Write the structure tokens for this entry.
Amino acid sequence: MSDMAIDRRRLLKASLIGATSFKLGGCDILITPREAKSLGADLQSLSTNEARTLDRLGDILLPGAQKAGFSHFIDAQISNVPGDFLSMLRYMDWPPPYKNFYTGGLAALDALSHERHGAGFVEISADNATELISAISAGDPDDWADQAPPPPLFYFITRSDAIDVVYGTKEGFERLGIPYLAHIDPVGNW
């Protein structure tokens, strides 16, 4: 077994510091979403375009989400078994597989962007992207895909996910000036 192989001890230790299993160079390693993003870890479930769209959405919802590894976090979560899924979506009675929620919402957002602005979500201006996000947060835009999750729910979940990735760490709490009062203190920073 290699040094990077996942065993029970490594998994338990890594879970205390917010690490998740990512594929890097064909090997499974336990690193944080931020590290996975910076190292260019392989995506397991999202396409490159879906990840780019998700990162853009996350960064508009909460600047810094992309750098924090937003798309890698979501990709890792939707690649897990439903019982290990860590997004707020799990508590909203949305049926697994959770991948369908994200890929359906991202496809609908991209289609809405093409319909209203003639280009994909990652290619439009920040003002136009903000306008689209406002439209989906406020209700059902007429041109939102029927098979996609309800737009306000998609907005709420992706915004909650972005907040978790950016501020759900010891470092994030420190940036907010809030004491980090975890039940079990992580052994290291994310």
Notes: The two ends are 26 Å apart (CA to CA). Residues 44-176 form one domain.
